[in-house]
Amino acid sequence: MNQQAIDTVIERRAPGSRADIRFIRLKEVMAICGKSRSSVYDAIKRGAFPRPVKLQGRSAAWIKSEVEQWAVQCIRTSRRDSKP
């Protein structure tokens, strides 16, 4: 992730510091979004879900606030689409 991408992630967050960033693993991602492992990766491939951050070697995690923002957007879209 380049510096501009990191700055964008930090700017999207609620007021706070870099210490507020929390990485979560796939198990917690699936618990938040209600998707299976394959559905998460399929959505990432389509650009419809936040990408994980490479931490070290094969290790990767998601930024919790990005997954939560995705969930909020899903709720907004669902509520908007269900109005008569």
TrEMBL record:
Pfam families for this protein: Phage_AlpA
Gene3D superfamilies recorded: 1.10.238.160
Transmembrane region(s): none
Signal sequence coordinates: none
InterPro entries recorded: AlpA, Prophage_regulatory_activator
Protein name as it appears in the record: AlpA family transcriptional regulator
Species per Swiss-Prot/TrEMBL record: Massilia arenae
